[in-house]
Amino acid sequence: MLILLVPMGIMGILTPYGTGHSPIWFASGYNKGPEFWKLGAIFGIIYLAIFIVVGIPWIQFVMPLLG
User: Record's PANTHER family (predicted)?
Assistant: First the structure.
């Protein structure tokens, strides 16, 4: 189930250097450190909510069809 989180961008919000473009945004000063972590927490909660609301029912729907 965690493989669904990768396309949603979960790695980019875990750390300032988690994805390829993150060091550019972070080093340029576009987002300051505390602001980056605050936005990361907000978007992490949003991604988790989407995963729970959409992903878990989808897995429960697909699993019986697979086997």
Answer: DICARBOXYLATE TRANSPORTER 2.1, CHLOROPLASTIC (PTHR42826)
Looking at residue 12, its amino acid is G
| Per-residue pLDDT at 59 | 85
Q: How far apart are CA 52 and CA 33, in angstroms?
A: 28
Give the domain extent around 19.
2-66
pTM, rounded to two decimals: 0.63
Count of domains for the chain: 1
- Residue 42 tokens, joined: 């907000």
Q: State in Å, rounded, how far the first CA of the chain is from the last one.
A: 17
Whether the CB-CB separation of 55 and 2 falls below 8 Å is answered with: no
> Which two three-digit tokens encode residue 6?
């990768």
